[in-house]
């Protein structure tokens, strides 16, 4: 079931486009991109979320990530 967001699709797409442009400009390999993005998520959780909520937020994020993965074979 899709999640509602307080952010518009346009806001999300604009920021996503900027992040992708940085990675593409530097010709960043997929594994390094995933490492950097994972580190960014960890840093955001550790610096912006109360300690008592961090594991729940990380679990929720991981579940949302799992739910968003497509099963097609394209890459």
TrEMBL record:
From which organism does this entry originate?
A: Enterobacillus tribolii
Q: Which domain of life is it from?
A: Bacteria
Output this protein's name: UPF0352 protein C8D90_10180
* A Pfam family annotated for this UniProt entry: DUF1414
In the record, the note on similarity to other proteins reads:
Belongs to the UPF0352 family.
